[in-house]
């Protein structure tokens, strides 16, 4: 709905972007078996990225997705996924903000329909120090949901696999 009402304004912008916080489409049963409704909601947003990026490409409006490789230290992670222990195994929200900035500064007519993982995108743009995003460097990073098994982290980044 937000996109629907923003599109007329975006088509008049110099470098228009829509960014969804949604995962790459990785249709593996393991994502659905414990949380079907949540997975459907997240993948539904990802399908909107596919559809809107194709629909709006000729108008020059970029539509992309961004997803974190690791858990992010937010209230949801702290309250729902494991409290302080999970927070310490997370990255700070700044990594997502920095990755979003990289996307928003790309030419909209050239960068659309992409499913970006935060650290992989930042690495491609020249970032090499990912420790600055860690809540606690002494604790191994926890993988987020929906990151495909074959998506390799940047050099020097190690993530605990989901259990």
Task: Give the structure's gist in a few sentences.
Helices cover 39% and strands 10% of the residues. It is built from seven helices and five strands, in the order αβααβαααβαββ. It starts with a helix and ends with a strand.
Question: What would you note in describing this structure?
Answer:
With 163 residues, this protein is of the alpha/beta class. The chain has one domain (2-160): Rossmann fold (3-Layer(aba) Sandwich). Helices cover 39% and strands 10% of the residues. It is built from 7 helices and 5 strands; from the N terminus they run αβααβαααβαββ. It has helices spanning 2-10, 29-32, 36-56, 75-80, 83-88, 94-104, 118-124; strands at residues 17-20, 62-67, 115-117, 141-142, 159-160. A 3-stranded parallel β-sheet has the order 1-2-3, with helices on both faces. The protein has a two-stranded parallel sheet with strand order 4-5. Helix 6 (94-104) crosses helix 7 (118-124). It is globular and about 45 Å long. The chain starts with a helix and ends with a strand.
């Amino acid at each position: 709905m937000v996109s629907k009402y923003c599109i007329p304004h975006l088509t008049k912008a110099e470098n228009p972007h829509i960014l969804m916080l949604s995962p790459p489409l990785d249709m593996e049963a393991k994502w659905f078996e414990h949380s079907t409704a949540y997975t459907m909601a997240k993948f539904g947003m990802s399908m909107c990225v596919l559809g809107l990026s194709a629909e709006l490409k000729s108008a020059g409006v970029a539509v992309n997705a961004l997803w974190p490789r690791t858990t992010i230290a937010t209230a949801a992670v702290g309250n729902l996924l494991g409290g302080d222990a999970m927070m310490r195994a997370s990255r700070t929200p700044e990594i997502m903000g920095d990755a979003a900035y990289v996307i928003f500064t790309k030419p909209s007519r050239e960068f659309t329909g992409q499913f970006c993982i935060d650290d992989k995108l930042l690495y491609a743009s020249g970032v090499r120090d990912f420790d600055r995003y860690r809540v606690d460097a002494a604790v191994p990073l926890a993988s987020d949901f929906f990151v495909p098994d074959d998506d390799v982290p940047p050099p020097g980044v190690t993530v605990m696999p989901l259990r």
